[in-house]
Amino acid sequence: MRYLPHSDSDRAKMLAAIGVDSAEELFSSVPDTLMLRTPLDLPPHSPEFMVENHMRGLAGKNRTCDDGPFFIGAGAYRHHVPASVDHLIQRSEWLTAYTPYQPEISQGTLQMLFEFQTQVAHLTGMEVANASMYDGSTATAEAVLMARRLTRREKTVLSGALHPQYKDVVATYLSEDEGLICLPPDPLGVASLVEHIDEKTAAVVVQTPDFYGNLHDIEALASTAHEVGALLIVVVTEIIALGLIEAPGALGADIVVAEGQSLGNPLGFGGPYVGLLATRQKFVRQMPGRVCGETVDAEGKRGFVLTLSTREQHIRREKATSNICTNAGLCALAFSIHLSMLGEKGLTALAELNHANACILANALEKLPGVEVLNKTFFNEFTIRVKGNAAKHIEALTARNILGGLPVSRLEPQMPALADLIVLSATELTTNEDITALVLALGEELA
């Protein structure tokens, strides 16, 4: 309060206006046991340069993805981001721009989002995409809510091979209601979803490539869902995969959601990332977020506007399709710039390189005694079963400065049967030297 210019008289008038006698009464709802009665045990203040030195020391303790062989994926992937992406997104036209409420002065931002939507629609094989979501997991949850509005049903079936954290986010959005069916973990990707689909089903959610790396036949699943009026939601956590595999929209998906981090956005210790959501034109009125459109002005010149903003800031709350306040604008811009630089041929070549490196890695690991590659199909990520406890092996590899993948038990701790599984990823940045180091180290740990 010492920095506020209000006098005692000013404060008394404000307190009287709201009907309390003191500022302390404003905190009366806080339990007494939670009230701070003594000063915090904080170090004394320091000069700025000493604080900077201290923070650099703390940062130096971090192990980054570039400090040695790196094979972690599981929804966030290490890819090369061209220096030109970072340069362009830091131009003042982009970096200082906020939400484009005033189209007459936000044409650059609006056009960028329009181009982004076009790219996402093309990648996913859908007819319309929104101007981005926060990340892939929240996009998945929003897609489930969207499907429920469209079908006016509640039952939602989540594949057992859906990313565990995506399952958790959906469950949080839905408060784990009775209509949510989360199938048990499916490392082999063979569990049938068809038997869970009936006339009460609003949506089936399937990931491809899935959390364990398996690819799925979503065309047959879409056909079964559509026979009973259910919708198929397809999740893609590795957007680079769409450079090689068929677009989900072409295979019958009704809503496609994805994590776009792999294009233009570094790992960044967990974010910020960029969620993608695309659907069919007939469903656009129930699509969350915002949509930028192309039009012409009074003089016939090309221009861009916010075509749809069906969120609670703009319409009655009970009619809003989402409470999402904005879009991941800067991350979407980075995505769009990187994809524009690659082009269609470049994206395909990048995807081919990712798959080729993953095949080299899988073949090398399969030769190790005590290692079994579970996947029959994969893109740049797959699952192995190892002898012993996978988490302990990963810890041992980390001590050797090798981040050897993700032990499944970290995200599925309640499933002891999965304690011997590791999910590994290879990208264009994975070198033969990295693979050799991992194979030698893991071989010694398993011996």
User: Could you name the CATH class of the largest domain?
Assistant: Alpha Beta
Number of strands: 13
CATH level-3 fold name of the largest domain: Aspartate Aminotransferase, domain 2
Radius of gyration: 25 Å
CATH architectural group of the largest domain:
3-Layer(aba) Sandwich
- Helix/strand structural class: alpha/beta
Physical arrangement of strands within the biggest beta sheet: 1-7-6-5-4-2-3
What kind of assembly state do the chains in view correspond to? single chain
Coarse shape:
globular
Which strand-content bin applies to the residues? 5-15%
Please tell me the overall pLDDT. Answer: 92
| Count of helical stretches | 11
Can you write the helix and strand succession as a string?
HHHHHEHEHEEHEEEEEHEEHEEH
Poorly predicted regions: none
- Could you estimate the helical fraction of the residues in percent? 25-40%
Largest sheet: 7 strands, mixed
Task: Supply the number of structural domains.
Answer: 2
